[in-house]
Amino acid sequence: MLNHIHIWNFAIVEQLDLALDSGLTVMTGETGAGKSILLDALSLALGDRAESNVIRHGADKAEVSVTFDTRHNPDAEAWLQEREMASENECIIRRVVYRNSASKAFINGVPSPATALRELGEMLVDLHGQHEHQSLLKKEHQRELLDAYAGHADLLDLLQQHYQNWKKKNTEYQTLRQAQKDRDARLEILRYQVQELESLALKPGETSELEQEHKRLANAKDLIQNCDSILQQLSDAEQQTVNDILNHSQVELSDMARTDPQLTAIAELINNALIQTQEASSELRHYLDNMELDPERLGWIDQRLADIHELSRKHHVDGEALPALLPELQRELEQLENADESLSRLKTDIDSVAKQYQQTATKLGKSRTKSAGQLSQQVSESMQTLGMDGGVFEIALITEEDAAFSAHGMEKIEFRVSANPGQPPKSLTKVASGGELSRISLAIQVITAQNSRIPTLIFDEVDVGIGGRVAEIVGRLLRELGDHRQVICVTHLPQVAALGHHHLQVRKLKATDTTISHIVALQAPQRVDEIARMLGGIEITSQTLSHAEEMLDRVSR
Known about the structure:
Blueprint: E1 2-10, E2 13-19, E3 24-29, H1 35-45, E4 61-69, H2 74-82, E5 90-98, E6 104-107, E7 110-111, H3 114-124, E8 125-129, H4 139-150, H5 153-181, H6 183-200, H7 206-218, H8 220-236, H9 242-259, H10 264-290, H11 295-315, H12 322-337, H13 339-385, E9 392-399, E10 411-418, E11 426-427, H14 428-431, H15 434-447, E12 456-460, H16 468-482, E13 486-490, H17 494-497, E14 502-510, E15 515-521, H18 524-536, H19 542-556
Parallel strand pairs: 3-13, 3-14, 8-12, 12-13
Antiparallel strand pairs: 1-2, 1-4, 4-5, 5-6, 6-7, 9-10, 10-11, 14-15
Helix pairs in contact: 4-13, 5-13, 6-12, 7-11, 8-10, 9-10, 13-15, 15-16, 18-19
């Protein structure tokens, strides 16, 4: 639900803070007062194209911020959770348009592209009327409306499972079939590659071990000479060694420490150094005892590494990756060698899944056909009361003989209408005027209100071209819809305005060098004045005021 909208320097609005409630909110005002500004600002926040001409004259930027309560909107909540944007059942969308630079958008403080605003916006608000955000003209939305009305969500889920299973197996089949075309050549290559890798019998981690051993053996002579020289200096030379010097120093310091205890700690340090040096000498002797020149082993390692590098080059992988490559090639070889059997098994599986899909799709089609008839009849009946006498609404289910499988079933759904008696129904996109489309949409929304998932509906001038009794019927339909959802309606008819749970008035204030539009929430006495203005025009008489009071009283009774 839309809770709040804040607008800065947008069109002729300098600043506007507006809180919105559930139920039916009507918005009225004199022609030219700017009733469409609120909807334009909301559309901008929900991803409409950002143009610099929306910035109020004299300002450098325009900004719109809208706040939604998402507690009862699982689709929007899931969308936000998936993108790590969730914020305690609240969604704040902010859009800033600059005069000399690109616009910016944020969802719960996270910078977001306009495409994300549009995607999320379709889950938050449904705009109806002569507006580019209309959804009723979209074929996928027509299908979703019918499915929501039919209430066969479980059947749709099952169909989508069968479709995904069929698609997966069909992809496997096509891949294997394509591979079979080059089977003989590929088999020869695979057999040779597998034989090479099996002969190499490379173990995981062996390449790095061999490289390390090769480095040691290749430098064995220098290593032996240098280690022996160091060992001589430490302990094995005939002349004075490091061990001799440390031992002599430790004895003298120990003797002196008896005279001056301050030297005790130094004597201990020298003693520790002596112990470390003796251990180092022991380790060096052990290293030299096990170190030998082995040209034969070095030659074997040279050849082994050459074989590894050659196969690595052939397969375009690092030597360490060769052991993991062998089982992959073995699996592919096995698949190709048993391709005929695998293709036959896959074909059987595909036929089985396709049968399951077709059976489910048939059930779905029957459910859609039944529901389409019921919804068509209900909308047609509503059209008679909405100023379209003799109009007919029809939902066509079009099934092509060779229709491809899809996640949504075998039928194409098309809403059709005949607004004039005697004319055959045609596609809604071709024959319905803006006003007719709004009223047809209103009828559908009222009928499907219990099943729809979008919590906020906005109707812009749904009462175009009607009046009198029909206008009151439209108002009552909107109020009925407001019992289930949040409804905002821009209207110029007093019959509709009187039926709102809440009433907003758009006012335009003119100063010497500027014009400012703002919106106020009307209380009961103010509503009487506004409805009287809508009834009587320039001159408001006591009779007009009385009529306005009567209209409001009739609603409250």
